[in-house]
Design goal:
The complex is a heterodimer of chains A (about 280) and B (about 775). Chain A has about 280 residues and is an all-alpha fold. Chain A is built from twelve helices and three strands; from the N terminus they run E-H-H-H-H-H-H-H-H-H-E-H-H-E-H. The termini of chain A are far apart. In chain B, strand 1 and strand 2 form a beta hairpin. The chains are: A mainly alpha (about 280), B mainly alpha (about 775). Chains A and B meet through helix 1, helix 2, helix 3, helix 5 and helix 7 of A and helix 44 and helix 47 of B.
Chain lengths: ~280, ~775
């Protein structure tokens, strides 16, 4: 407001990834709540949540519905990747090793060491590119998580089918442990590490809305990801990424949604910690 | 030997006589044949011995045959005369005087003082006699046997009774001579004489008195059956407990003057029986005070009854007296099934005299029943009161009108222990009751026409006259026990059944009508009521709980009269606390109690692993109420019951319950799922068997089918799901154990790494932020 001049924004996320992330948020929060309800079913707080949601049966249905959303965005993402390959927007090699690739490489290790040095005041802030190593970790954590939790979840969803095709009965028990503990890991990671790394770290606090709005102010972008800025400038693609700042209304909606998700996540993690302290004591 | 000697003496006497005759007439002698000579020679030897004795003793008899021979001793003249002929006849006739009078020298006259003393023990074994009472009291042998006229045993024994009575002159003892025992003794020794009872032999009498212990044995030696009957009778039982004043044989039959019951003088003669029994059984005696017999004024009533009237006024000796109905010796209380006055036997007893009774009662009772099934008809005494039998019914003799003459007065009251008790009776109420056909005095049996008014002191009604079994049960129940102890709260018959308004339990208005029983019992057992306040067990709020239970709802809401109510489980009259092994609700008896209705379930249950017949263990096995509860029984389909059942099983099976909650079924159940499998859905409920039993629902054969009830596509591999799995048991479930630890390490690793990462980042981020802020500030200032 105080700056009459319109600030220049750089496009970081297209519409499709942003849509996917909204789906991730909605489904993940749903899964986390409804899943923890059964994981910690001894706890009266989760029994109450189950009742609020409409009983254990509705809770189970929500969980399965959210699982379907998860599978949906998982396949949407795979489809997006394949399409990207087929359309030759980028080569196969570029997709798995380039600057825009999410696949970890040597540079990430280097940046990690530089980051640690920076933390300890032994060096400058690394020149982060499009994807930092923790962002890559986040991506693959979700990728891995969906695979593991999704597959074990299917076994638990259709135990009769999976045993009919030859899986032993005790594998359902194994699937239960994996599904439950992996979910605990995922929820715990997202609601603490991801929340901090992305939103709560002092330079972004209280929230980075880029995943909803898609754009970053150019100044911030320059500071945050200097290497990407340089690369874009050199290749002349920077101009193409310019975009108008998101509208006030859109930002507000994004903030409301984002804060709701954050608060929900925090509540869930508090409940998890409370339950674990209470149960395993 | 003695007999042989006697014969020999008699023969010798004859021969001596012959010899003298022969010597006088020598011509006659020539006629004697040779054989006679031989005979003579043969007998001449003993003759010489005998004559020798005569010759010896004759010296003594020279003086002692003198009737005047006497001596003075302590101022008394004692005759020294010995009847020679009688002596010769006595058992000692063939021995020398000096054999007994050893110290006497026949030639030395006069004999020294006391030289004549005889000691029988020189020849006879007197040890036994000396130990006897006669020996101890220094009775001399000759006092019974005489000195010189001692008779042979058989003759002596015949006369012994007189001998005994010559000293034992008491009237009581003398009475023996009139007794049936003496009569029989004289008729050929078939009855006992004195020594038969007193010691068993003339020399063995230990004491005149026969001890009480020996008395029955003594009588039983001849009257075995009678004594046997007596011993099981009320009298015999009281006697063996030493309970005064229990009668023994002597009490009724006397000791010595035992007369036949046909003898009018006998105490047991039919005319005398009522007085004999009455000695103890009339009002005011110790017996009537010691024992709470429901019949009162027995003797007085009997005298006025048709039986008593016949006996006393008309002298009809075939009329019934006490012993005719109660039997002479086997007198038993009416509760005893063997008793002649037991409800089932009374008809038989009366029919001893009233043989054609069927014909008389045909209008009222099917004649065949009298003998075949006497229990199906009212007992005689139910219409003809025991001791007051009259020719006419009570209704006629002492009618209800007479009672109601006073008792219809609403202000009629009596004072008992300072409390005013109304004696008003609503006759209409009586006529509506189940006892409407009974007259007042059928229950109030102790009215006595000798009293004025007749009912004074008639006491409480004894329901056991007709309802013996029920009262017996009640008396041993906790209600009865407390009531007997004087507990004011403990109920008596009338507290549940009412008094004059008693109705059948099938009557809707009866307090014992099944639908009203919870209210009836609740009067004392509902919360805060007296019985509840003193109750120390775990079942509280019984009444409310029952109302909400399946039984209570069935009874009170649906009006299902066959539903279990208080009395169905606790019995009607025999209620006992749960701890009593005879209680219907004792854990040992509970399955049987429930089986009264739930027989099918019971038959399955007794074959299950929880049945003590199948599992032998010291641990407590569950019975019906451990799972279904006692007063809060619910329908098993109700969610509440299904949720609770896990707690019930978990009481004993703690481990598996814990692991159940670690797995899916348990977790969903915790969220309130009712339809998710509970213990009983897989293991069964009443038919639980160990999974290794082929009939178990979880056996290899059955498990797939069992899982199919919820999982229609259940298959052999599917049932391999571990419903009680735990990842804490490395040996039992290694896959789960290692999976769990792998996941745990993964979690710890990830969180540790990123935890540190964040921890280090945070201070750096703050530093950077402050730097950036400063820079912005300085830029602005520029």
């Amino acid at each position: 407001m105080r700056n009459e001049q319109k600030e220049i924004y750089i496009t970081r996320f297209g519409a499709f990834p942003r849509l996917l992330h909204v789906l991730v948020i909605i489904s993940f929060l749903s899964l986390a709540i409804t899943g923890m309800v059964i994981k910690f079913s001894e706890m009266s707080v989760f029994q109450t949540i189950s009742k609020i949601l409409g009983g254990y049966e509705v809770t189970g249905t929500i969980h399965r519905f959210a699982a379907m959303i998860t599978f949906l965005y998982f396949f949407m993402h795979l489809w997006y990747l394949i399409k990207k390959l087929v359309k030759c927007e980028c080569s196969f090699k570029e997709m798995f090793s380039g600057e825009n690739s999410l696949v970890p490489n040597k540079n990430d290790l280097k940046e990690f060491i530089q980051t640690v040095k920076w933390f300890w005041g032994l060096g400058p802030r690394p020149q982060y590119g499009r994807w930092t190593y923790w962002e890559k970790f986040d991506y693959f954590a979700v990728f891995w998580g969906i695979t593991v939790i999704g597959s074990t979840g299917l076994v638990l969803w259709f135990p009769e089918f999976f045993t009919a095709i030859g899986l032993p009965g005790w594998l359902i028990n194994v699937a239960t442990i994996i599904h439950s503990d992996e979910a605990l890991l995922a929820a715990g990671f997202i609601f603490t590490v991801h929340f901090f790394n992305t939103h709560f770290r002092p330079d972004k606090f209280p929230m980075d809305t880029v995943i909803f709005t898609g754009g970053v102010p150019i100044e911030e972008f320059k500071e945050d990801r200097p290497r990407e800025y340089e690369t874009l400038q050199e290749s002349g693609e920077l101009e193409g990424k310019f975009m108008a700042p998101p509208s006030q209304a859109f930002t507000t909606i994004a903030k409301i949604f984002g804060f709701s998700a954050l608060i929900t996540g925090i509540i869930i993690i508090i409940l998890i910690i409370y339950s674990m302290v209470f149960l395993y004591n | 030997m003695q007999n042989a000697d006697n014969t020999l003496i008699a023969l010798n006497k004859k021969l001596i006589l012959k010899y003298f005759i022969i010597s006088r007439d020598i011509n006659y002698m020539t006629q004697i044949k040779f054989l006679s000579v031989l005979k003579f020679i043969l007998f001449i030897v003993p003759f010489f011995f005998t004559s020798l004795i005569f010759a010896q003793n004759s010296v003594c008899f020279d003086c002692h045959s003198d009737r005047g021979l006497s001596k003075e001793k302590n101022g008394k003249t004692i005759s020294l005369f010995v009847d020679e002929s009688k002596f010769a006849k006595s058992v000692h006739g063939d021995i020398l005087c000096v054999d007994c009078h050893a110290n006497v020298d026949p030639e030395d006259l006069p004999h020294a003082k006391n030289d004549g003393k005889v000691d029988c023990s020189d020849c006879h074994d007197t040890e036994e006699f000396e130990a006897s009472i006669h020996g101890k009291k220094s009775v001399a042998c000759y006092e019974c046997h005489t000195k010189h006229e001692i008779e042979p045993a058989e003759i002596f024994e015949t006369n012994r009774v007189a001998l005994c009575l010559s000293c034992h002159v008491q009237n009581k003892v003398k009475g023996y001579k009139q007794s049936v025992h003496f009569e029989l003794f004289m008729k050929g020794k078939s009855g006992p004489e004195c020594v038969d009872c007193h010691g068993g032999g003339g020399h063995k009498i230990k004491s005149a008195k026969i001890s009480e212990d020996d008395l029955l044995k003594l009588c039983a030696s001849c009257h075995k059956k009678v004594v046997g009957n007596y011993e099981i009778s009320l009298h015999g039982q009281a006697f063996s407990r030493g309970k005064y004043p229990a009668p023994n044989c002597i009490t009724c039959h006397s000791s010595h003057k035992i007369l036949s019951h046909t003898n009018p003088k006998a105490k047991t003669y039919v005319m005398n029986v009522p007085n004999l029994c009455g000695q103890c059984h009339k009002e005011g005696t110790t017996v009537s005070q010691l024992n709470d017999i429901s019949e009162h004024n027995i003797l007085a009533n009997y005298k006025q009854s048709i039986h008593g009237d016949g006996l006393f006024r008309r002298g009809l000796i075939v009329t019934a007296v006490c012993s005719s109905c109660h039997t002479p010796h086997k007198i038993l209380p009416h509760e005893n099934p063997e008793s002649s006055i037991n409800k089932n036997n009374i008809a038989k007893t009366c029919m001893q005299c009233h043989a054609q009774i069927e014909a008389v009662h045909q209008k009222v009772i099917n004649g065949v029943l009298w003998e075949k099934e006497p229990s199906k008809i009212p007992a005689c005494i139910e219409c003809h009161q025991p001791h007051e039998v009259r020719r006419v019914f009570y209704e006629d003799s002492l009618s209800d009108d007479m009672c109601m003459g006073c008792h219809s007065n609403k202000n009629l009251k009596k004072n008992e222990n300072g409390k005013e008790i109304s004696l008003y009776v609503d006759y209409k109420e009586v006529k509506r009751s189940v006892h409407k056909d009974n007259s007042c005095i059928k229950c109030h049996t102790n009215v006595f026409t000798g009293n004025n008014p007749v009912c004074i002191g008639s006491g409480k009604v004894d329901c056991s006259i007709c309802h013996a079994e029920e009262v017996k049960n009640y008396s041993s129940s906790i209600h009865g026990t407390l009531h007997k102890e004087g507990d004011e709260v403990a109920p008596y018959c009338t507290d549940c059944h009412g008094s004059h308004n008693i109705m059948k339990h099938s009557d809707r208005d009866s307090p014992t009508f099944s639908k009203r029983i919870p209210d009836l019992c609740g009067q004392c057992h509902k919360k805060g009521a007296p019985a509840d306040l003193r109750y120390k067990g775990v079942e509280h709020n019984i009444f409310k709980n029952y109302e909400m239970s399946i039984h209570g709802k069935g009874l009170l809401k649906s009006g299902l009269l066959v539903t279990a109510t208080c009395t169905d489980c606790h019995t009607t009259h025999h209620e006992l606390p749960i701890s009593d092994p005879n209680s219907s609700v004792n854990p040992k008896n509970i399955p049987k109690t429930c089986a009264k209705c739930h027989l099918g379930v019971y038959e399955i249950f007794v074959k299950s692993v929880h049945s003590p017949k199948v599992t032998k263990t010291d641990k407590k096995l569950p019975v019906c109420n451990d799972c279904h509860m006692s007063h809060t029984i619910e329908r098993v389909e109700y969610a509440d019951f299904r949720q609770k059942i896990i707690n019930q099983c978990g009481k004993c099976h703690e481990d598996v319950t814990k692991t159940y909650f670690d797995t899916f079924h348990g977790k969903v159940t915790k969220l309130g799922s009712e339809k998710t499998a509970k213990c009983s859905d897989c293991h069964g409920s009443h038919d639980i068997l160990p999974p290794d039993s082929p009939d178990s629902r979880l056996s290899y054969k059955n498990i797939v089918q069992t899982c199919k009830t919820c999982h229609p596509n259940s298959n052999r591999k599917f049932v391999g799901y571990l419903t009680h799995a735990t990842h804490h048991d490395k040996n039992k479930y290694p896959f789960l154990y290692y999976t769990f630890w792998f996941m745990t390490i993964l979690l710890i690793g990830t969180f540790s790494f990123f935890g540190l990462h964040t921890l280090f980042w945070l201070p750096r981020a703050f530093i950077e932020k402050r730097k950036a802020n400063k820079q912005k500030k300085s830029e602005k200032e520029k």
